[in-house]
Amino acid sequence: MKKLLFLAVLFSVLTLTTGAFAIPVTLTEGTGSGVYAYVGFYNPAEPSPHWHYNNYYTDYTAKIWYGDVAEPSALIGQFKAFCIDPAESNAQKSPTYDLVGVPNQAKYNEAAWLFQQYKSNTYSGYSVTDYQMAIWKTVLGANFWYSSPNSHVNTLVADAAGHGGFNASNFSIVSSPRNTDLSHTYGVPNQDFLIDYNVPEPSILVLIGMGMIALAGQRLTRGQRAWL
What we know:
The chain has helices spanning 2-17, 106-120, 128-140, 151-160, 202-226, and strands at residues 23-31, 36-42, 51-57, 60-66, 75-83, 96-101, 144-145, 172-175, 193-195. The protein is built from five helices and nine strands, in the order αββββββααβαββα. By secondary structure, it is α+β, with helices and mostly antiparallel strands.
């Protein structure tokens, strides 16, 4: 039995530290102040593409967990989150996500730059709704609509456009469901989020994995001695 446990740990570590680098997590979505904005999303992938207009939350928080949310020790933390996806979400299902690094693409780097300005309160008097709408516009482009007289959002979008080379390594994307291309279309539950959390470097995970293997091996050795 202990040999099987050791092999399971070894397999898990090798799986985690090789191949596509992503950490499987679960997420519970919540809202901050519960503020809304009336905006529109266009989905060109629909059989009959059309605009969807509605009041959407603009102030998100996210709890990220390794593994099972029922295990309190698995909680990574609670983070400010900005939605980068129009897909509908059900906060109660706690679906499995991939925690991945931000792709080195201009639109995601610009969104992370906006997130950094929000954290630094660079633009005095700008609301979380202003930032959320600017991030949607930056990521989704022509497939996102907001009321254009909003000067705050216009300013944020325009300023972000010059920061496609921003270093977004201090941020991560919670992507669902295993949505490796991060395509943002309706009918793909649940929403993807940009969060203020950096994915651990692969080298760190390798060290953690080596420690897990050593610990499992030590327990296996003790178990064998107990039978002598």
